[in-house]
Amino acid sequence: MIRELAPPAERGRLEIHPAVLRKVVEHAADQVPGTLRHERRLAGIDIGEAGASARISTGSGDPAAVDVRLEITLQYPASVRTVVDAVRAKVGEELARVAGRRVRAMTVTVAGLRPARPTAARLQ
């Protein structure tokens, strides 16, 4: 006897934890040219690298909409507005593609501007 499956929409629901959405946002932001990962130090000790840092809020109204607060470091010199616009676009695309979510609001804070590669100190 062959049983027919119920349509996918009637089989259950999918919930994606905000921590997963946060990782998707951070990864997407780190992929945009002009953003930088930077070293993390604690009491002068190198403890690795850090990239974009995000906070995600899901609303009670539209379950597919999320609010994003994102902090990034950019390469210097670069057009801040151009890079931030590219970050906004990439984050929106990735959230839609990976999680079926859309960005309701996004706040981007540029936490720093750093050269792409450390430059040697010039002796005078």
UniProtKB/TrEMBL annotation:
Domain of life, per lineage: Bacteria
Family: Belongs to the asp23 family.
Record protein name field: Putative alkaline shock family protein YloU
